[in-house]
Design goal:
- With about 525 residues, the chain is α/β, with parallel strands linked by helices.
- It has 3 domains: about 230 residues, Aldehyde Dehydrogenase, Chain A, domain 1 (3-Layer(aba) Sandwich), CATH 3.40.605; about 190 residues, Aldehyde Dehydrogenase, Chain A, domain 2; about 55 residues, no CATH class.
- The chain has 18 helices and 16 strands.
- The strands form 3 sheets. A 7-stranded mixed β-sheet has the order 10-11-12-9-8-13-14, with helices on both faces. Strands 5-4-3-6-7-15 form a 6-stranded mixed β-sheet, sandwiched between helices.
- Helix 10 links the parallel strand 8 and strand 9.
- The longest helix has 27 residues.
- Keywords: Oxidoreductase.
């Protein structure tokens, strides 16, 4: 692994100015086009197509870079990073025309009825994108592609903890984009601080920890810069008394897929299991069996992702040294590489266990026994509220509804784990401590554009609207209220009422129906 060269602090303001200038110059150029919208859409699509093929051309380079950074499994780099990224870019290309073209809104008020109301999605300007280490490619280039699809320029700050991926992504950006369209800043805290303190961005998109997210939100607030914060959280798994025992093995496989994939370094990883006492022993037995099935013997040669750095190893080892739970460890050779920790189950843990104090973000899975569902939910809400996702394994719809109604979460998945993240039509984002804002599919266009209302009023309607002009009189007020104020369809007790307009329509309909039926009757005679 070669050292990552950080961007000179003195050069960062120039990069920010270059990105801002690119956006403004592009808007000036488009404004002079005969068909600015069509040209704009064509340019965005062509740029995304170029990005797609540039990434494709460097696919093996990305696999190699991720392996060098943290012994990333080839399977995981391809199947849970690159393939979802390819699909996301193709989805954006398909969506650009229909998302960006203005939409005419149907309005009912007399004041606006004869005008034209249009909703436009306009580019925000220049976006700051700060990406994480755990999915260094997908969680960097997907929002980057989204910002480009929405017509923005960017400052891109990849994670310094995955230097090989960071350098390769900078190379991809240089090969794909025009100077100023995407400017890459390499670095850590100092470089990020310079970016945030500039106060020149139109949006900040950050993926990472709640602690850093709070700092970014505070700094962004000084310049009224809106943010999307994709944060983490301690995501629970409920295995209830209504989970069929015949399906336990399948449930465990799905839980392990989320918990131990990427060596547990996934923001939506199942962080701990709450299992009902009636099936607890069977569940733990199934966990032991599937652990041997998935990881019979991990060695230095096994295709198994390692932890990102020594600090992460120390953090996990501290939990393992302090836990009072019983450890069930996956099979492994005696000597493993320094950053390789095999999957470990922690059974019979309690809420005050070391593994239950914060997000584990590693290959350990605490399993707790619960007796009363509401008591378990109370503990989730009081100790680890608003997780990024909650997972529920139960065959009872009422039970699922009960849990999901009480626990606020960014998402809720029933019967599986983590795969909701790659549903292209659904938003991905947190709530409360797990973040705010969302993206994916059409929600990406909400994240990186401003929805602007454009209203065009013809001059000829002024004779209908002149009651709004002074001098005012009671007659004008009555006319304005009669034409503008809507009436409720309920009374003070909540009972349904009918407006005079509806009653009139019902009477007219009855009269016409009567005439029609009378005529039909006469015709039969």
């Amino acid at each position: 692994m070669t050292e990552l060269k950080y961007t000179d602090l003195e050069l960062i303001p120039g990069k920010i100015d270059a990105a801002i200038k690119f956006y403004k110059d592009r808007q000036v150029r488009l404004s002079k086009s005969k068909k600015p919208l069509n040209e704009d859409i064509d340019e965005r699509i062509r740029t995304l197509q170029k990005l797609y093929w540039t990434i494709k051309d460097h696919e093996e380079d990305f696999v190699t870079a991720a392996f060098k950074d943290y012994h990333r499994s080839r399977n995981e780099t391809i199947n849970i990073e690159l393939v979802p990224l390819y699909n996301a870019i193709l989805e954006l290309i398909e969506r650009v025309p229909k998302e960006i073209k203005p939409k005419t809104l149907k309005v009912g008020t007399m004041t606006h009825r004869f005008g034209k109301t249009v909703l436009e999605k306009i580019a925000l300007g220049t976006v700051l994108l700060i990406s994480p280490f755990n999915f260094p490619i997908l969680l960097a280039l997907e929002p980057l592609a989204g910002a480009i699809a929405c017509g923005n320029s960017l400052i891109f700050k990849p994670s310094e903890l995955t230097p090989e991926c960071a350098k390769l992504m900078e190379k991809v950006c240089q090969e794909t984009f025009e100077p100023g369209q995407v400017e890459t800043v390499q670095g850590s805290i100092d470089e990020t601080t310079v970016l945030l303190d500039s106060g020149k961005f139109d949006k900040i998109f950050y993926t990472g920890s709640p602690a850093v997210g709070a700092i970014i939100a505070e700094k962004a607030g000084k310049s009224l810069t809106p943010c999307v914060l994709e944060l983490g959280g301690k995501s629970p798994v409920f295995v209830t008394k209504n989970m069929p025992k015949s399906k336990l093995d399948t449930a465990v496989r799905r839980i392990f897929f989320g918990s131990f994939g990427n060596s547990g370094q996934i923001c939506v990883a199942p962080d701990y299991v709450l299992c009902h006492e009636s099936i607890y022993e069977e569940f733990v037995a199934s966990c032991e069996k599937i652990l041997k099935e998935f990881f019979p013997s991990i060695s230095s040669e096994t295709e198994y992702t390692h932890l990102i750095h020594e600090g992460a190893v120390e953090r996990i080892n501290t939990v393992l040294d302090s836990t009072k739970g019983q450890k069930i460890i996956a099979g492994h050779s005696e000597k493993l590489p320094a950053r390789c920790i095999p999957p470990i189950l922690l059974t019979n843990v309690s809420w005050d266990d070391a593994s239950m104090q914060g997000e584990n973000f590693g290959p350990i899975l605490p399993i707790m026994k619960y007796f009363d569902l509401d008591e378990a939910i109370d503990n989730v809400v009081s100790k680890h509220d608003t997780p990024l996702v909650q997972y529920i394994f139960s065959s009872s719809t009422n039970e699922v509804d009960h849990i999901s109604t009480r626990i606020r979460s960014g998402a809720c998945v029933v019967g599986d784990t983590i795969i909701h993240v790659v549903i292209p039509e659904a938003p991905f984002g947190g709530v409360g401590n797990s973040g705010y804002g969302s993206y994916h599919g059409s929600y990406t266009f909400r994240a990186f554009t401003h929805e602007r209302t454009v209203f065009k009023q013809p001059f000829w309607v002024d004779f209908l609207l002149n009651v709004r002009y002074p001098p005012f009189a009671s007659s004008k007020t009555k006319i304005m209220r009669a034409t503008m104020e809507n009436k409720p369809n309920f009374d003070r007790n909540g009972c349904k009422t009918y407006s005079l307009k509806i009653i009139g329509l019902m009477i007219l309909s009855s009269v016409f129906l009567g005439f029609y039926l009378t005529g039909e009757s006469n015709g039969l005679d």
